[in-house]
Amino acid sequence: MSGSGEFDLIARYFTRPARRSPLGVGDDCALLAPAAGMQLAVSCDMLVEGRHFLSTVEPARLGHKALAVNLSDLAACGARPLAFTLALSLPAVDEAWLADFSRGLYALADAHGCELVGGDTTRGPLNLCITVFGEVPAGAALLRSGARAGDDVWVSGTLSLPAEAFELARGRMEQPTPRVALGLALRGIATAAVDISDGLVGDLGHVLRASGVGARLDADAAANLLATGDTAGLDIDLRRACALAGGDDYELAFTAPASARAAVEQAGRASATAVTRVGAIEAEAGLRLVDAQGAPVTQHVASFDHFA
Ligand code: ADP
Ligand code: MG
Description:
single chain, alpha+beta, 10 strands, 32% helix, binds adenosine-5'-diphosphate, binds magnesium ion
């Protein structure tokens, strides 16, 4: 994008006075000031038209989602959001689109006290990349590597169909709620955590590998977490498959010692987030699916292949 057009657009849609950060949009760098004793938690996620959303997406929903997927990464680490940057590539300057997009973006940003402090704007295929910065007390971040045999496996909220399927089928984009408050409440309680962006089995797999453990997962407990409406008419095999391999939920999957069950439930209440126990960590590597009675489930699940 050339010359004054770019700067007008940044001034109009992406500049607000920084409140928490010492320096926001407008200089060569933004400045952040994490509190003493805190570590910066940094994550970056890109959304590409045609791959993550359709050109017909409502821009306010896209603004929400672009930030939500990044806040979800902070949530999984138990980090408190501070600020974010936005790199934006746009095919053309469409004022109505930009106004709606920035409204959706700022609504979620304000809800989390996370401010836009910089970015880059250029002409090109529609593409969005947000980098988010959070803070967490040194040593207190929730990692993927902390799960231990005997821990419970928990999932927050409800599970759903992959967002792409949702958008293609319904012509609209999901509005995930990043579980930031739950992540903060789980500091010192959860032993490991991950946010679910590729399906429960796939993302729990990251925790199992990083922690050098395996798990037993109750496929029926997971199927019961499907948001009603999405999959009401499907048979149990399909419901299990949706819950295990479906996607893009931006819920947290986490582990905690069995002795911490009451503390996990209290963290759920404190953050107004449902938390459900769906399995147990075991020393033996791999993932074993069981039904509600504890009998093995042999059903094939797409992202299950990682564990073959
Ligand atoms: P530079 O040439 O130093 O990269 P730019 O001219 O690209 O700076 O941007 C000018 C200012 O506007 C910088 O502070 C930059 O962080 C900010 N900025 C550019 N694009 C965006 C955007 N989409 N959202 C927020 N801030 C932006
Ligand atoms: Mg630039």
